[in-house]
From TrEMBL:
Keywords: Membrane, Transmembrane, Transmembrane helix. It comes from Cellulomonas aerilata. The chain crosses the membrane at residues 7-23, 29-47, 54-72, 78-99, 111-130, 136-156, 163-182, 188-208, 220-243. The keyword Acyltransferase does not apply. This is Uncharacterized protein.
Amino acid sequence: MTVSTRAVVTAVVAALVAVAAFLGELPLVVLAGVLALLLAVGWPTLVDAPARRGAGVVVAVGGLGALVAVTLTTGEPFLRELPEVLALAVLLAFVHELVRRDGRERLVESVAGVVTGVVVTASVAGWVAAGRTTGGASLVVTGALALAVGSAVSALRLAGWLAALLTIVSAAGAGAGAGALLPLVDPLAGGLIGLAVGILVAAMHRLYDRLRTMRTRWPALAGAVLPVTVTGILVYVVGRVLVG
């Protein structure tokens, strides 16, 4: 899968997040769970981790556990149970290393890769948390739209810094436009959310150019949904500061 194709897939998935948020909390939770599983399947190969099956299970448990915790939490802040989930997932990552029967080669790399995978997969719960805050669906749609537009622009074959600049500007513009049209999110807040999302997309687009594992299907798909999962926690944090 080429870099441009992955960027288009990211844009499509981000658009699906916006649609799910518009439909209600349950569709958003279901979609977030699917994204967590897709990332868990491809993540071990993406980071070239040993013992990939066990690593994928740990990442999936961490991501889905975070999603369940945020969904069942009543009252703000909706991420207050997330640290406990992450701590248990890290403990599970060490248990995974203890039960390995392959000589435990590249032990440090394996632990680091699994723990990082848990963190980025658990970030998808940020979309659900954002949807339950003040501004709710409008906040999620603003972040998802900025991500979709920024990802679509990053698919264009342009020179390095020009592509990054256009990605950031287009995402910020999309966020500001959404903020102007949607209730409870003003253009300034939307623009700042889009700016943060655009920087994230531009950085990941440059990173993908250096990863050889992106050439196969599941790692490439995981790479495509990775910006969407990470943006979830970003939208929640920025939105909570700017919108309330």
